[in-house]
UniProtKB/TrEMBL annotation:
Residues 16-83 form the 4'-phosphopantetheinyl transferase N-terminal domain. Signal peptide: none annotated. The lineage of its organism: Bacteria, Bacillati, Actinomycetota, Actinomycetes, Micromonosporales. One of its GO terms (molecular function) is holo-[acyl-carrier-protein] synthase activity. Mg(2+) binds at D94, A95, E96. Coiled coil: none annotated. This is Phosphopantetheinyl transferase. It comes from Actinoplanes friuliensis DSM 7358. Residues 90-168 form the 4'-phosphopantetheinyl transferase domain. CoA binds at R28, R36, T72, H73, D94, E139, K143, L153. SUPFAM superfamilies: 4'-phosphopantetheinyl transferase.
Amino acid sequence: MVSSRTDPPEAVLFAEEAALVTTAVPKRRQEFTTVRHCARLALASLDVPPAPILPGVRGAPVWPSGIVGSMTHCAGYRAAAVARTTACSGVGIDAEVDGPLPEGVLDLVSSEEERAHLASLAESDPGVQWERLLFSAKESVYKVWSPRTGRWLGFEEAALTFDPAASTFTARILVDGPFETLTGRFLIEDGIVLTAIACAA
């Protein structure tokens, strides 16, 4: 994985990419540019030459043949992770600013069972924004699911639990598909919540 907390001046876009953000506000264009810069650095570590990274099905990035990957960005953070399909069948990463979710969002993205689980976690570790962590983990789940299936996965279609001691989470997928469960890791550092899933080939 390659990450950046700044927007380096050497980060540039291919013409095909730049065409997608011609009307974007500067902040959006910077995020779009830097996250692709991170992706190209990550691909270079696998000896993959630079190429445009364009959106495909449901906005997921289209990676070079034989590559799986994921990109994420939030205020003050951009990152990309890639792997060869011989080593990994899917990658999902997400970054969020560490803080509470906006009012009402938790009810939209979680089940009653998940909210009870988060309440229990908050009792033992109130310093963690468990609601934000749940949201991020579900985003990572979706980023693995969507490229593999070409289908939407609703927030209610994955049931998550967290293991704070191991800094891991498990998602039980509640619809038919290539995965019954997905397991990922989480990290909260320097004001950023990070979640990641890598599926074995």
